[in-house]
Amino acid sequence: MPFLTDSPPGSADALRRLVGLRWLSVGAMAALLGAVPPLLDIALPVSALWPVVLGLAAVNGASVLRLRQGGEVTPVELFAQLCMDLAAWSALLYFTGGATNPLISLLLPLVAIGAAILPAPYAWGLAVLAVAAYSLLWEFNEQLDIADSGLAVHWHLAGMWLTFAVSAGVIVGYVVRMTALIRHRDQALAEAREERLRNERIVALGNLAAGAAHELGTPLGTMAILAGELARNPRLDADTRADAALLGEQVAHCKAILGGLTLRAGSLRAEGGETQAADRWLDGIVERWRRLRPHVPLATHIDCGHPAPRLVADATLEQALHNLINNAADASPDGVECEAALAGEALVVRILDRGPGLPEGCQPGQPTPATGRGLGIGLLLAFGAVERCGGRIEFNPRPGGGTLATLTLPLSALCP
């Protein structure tokens, strides 16, 4: 019995689904020939109908071999396949009453299949052929011999009910499936559009960063010289010289970051391709962050197993984790927490703070939080870096107040 398919036009998948549906047609025809005579006491011309069933089965067997050979399936081939289905059902109806057989409405699902998988000209052509077959069966057919007219009317009404039920199921299935496909397509288009805009912003930021790195070199060098002179000036008190020394360290870190911008393009991995254990990689990121922001307490709990998996991490992932910790520290300067553990085939890093919580308009668990306090360029770059390796970043409210940022990285994208 023909049903609908949601396969794209002109594809091998469409033919594969059509083959599966045709086996259902063959089974329905065989069941009709085997069950109607004994159950309904209606004599069927089985000698003329069985060749139709066997012929359709042979066509489907040839289609299975065609699929195994591979190659492109064209709209013309799909149109020919549906024409064979239409011819088989028309032949079966010809020997079972033609247009008076209530099952003739089952030609409509074939037209619906054509509308779903064929280009418009072929779909209209199939519809014309179906109407022509219906018209011919109106005039040319072989009526079944049913002696009891009351029984004939009863089974005719039963057949009408069956065709109505099947048609209702086909329509609902078609509409639901097509609606789901349209929603899925719209969602995919929206995600692709959002990703393209984000990538454009990242490229623009990369160009700005390159220019900034070139222009900031001279003032940072001047600041480093002045900080060094102040740190060595004996006329200043010890606290001021200590602050000057710290300022010099921060300037040195800034110069190191600018010097490593070429490694932050996302196409290069850790320096020299050297692998390192996951816990060592995370400890290194944490220690570098502590040197940059020594006044914000950072508690860590890193458990990556024994032995921990070895990673070759993209340099931009280090910056992504650094940015997440930075945002947590901005929201909660009294202290933040960092936890890391393995979860199946992924490395999960959780950043917890006691700040004001999620920005207004940001739903828990959504991958991209709304723009708000502490959510700017750093997180834009973090999302881009994490998504490139197949990971994700999610934000949720922390019990007791604050925000929980969860970074999930698939080990398949990190392990050598």
Polypeptide structure, described:
The protein is an alpha+beta fold. It folds into three domains: 12-145, no CATH class; 197-264; 271-413, Heat Shock Protein 90 (2-Layer Sandwich), CATH 3.30.565. Helices cover 61% and strands 9% of the residues. It has helices spanning 12-40, 46-69, 75-94, 107-117, 120-139, 149-231, 238-259, 278-292, 315-331, 377-388; strands at 276-277, 298-303, 310-311, 336-343, 346-352, 392-397, 403-410. The strands form two sheets. It has a five-stranded mixed beta sheet with strand order 2-4-5-7-6. It has a two-stranded antiparallel sheet with strand order 1-3. The protein is rod-shaped. The model is unreliable at 1-10, 265-273 and 367-375 (pLDDT under 50).
CA-CA gap between termini: 52 Å
Mean pLDDT: 79
Secondary-structure element string: HHHHHHHEHEEHEEHEE
CATH topology of the largest domain: Heat Shock Protein 90
Strand content: 5-15%
Strand order of the largest sheet: 2-4-5-7-6
Q: Unreliable stretches, pLDDT < 50, 5 or more residues?
A: 1-10, 265-273, 367-375
Rounded to an integer in angstroms, the radius of gyration calculated over CA atoms is 35 Å
Q: Structural class, please?
A: alpha+beta
The CATH class of the largest domain: Alpha Beta
The number of strands is: 7
CATH superfamily of the largest domain: Histidine kinase-like ATPase, C-terminal domain
- The CATH architecture name of the largest domain reads 2-Layer Sandwich
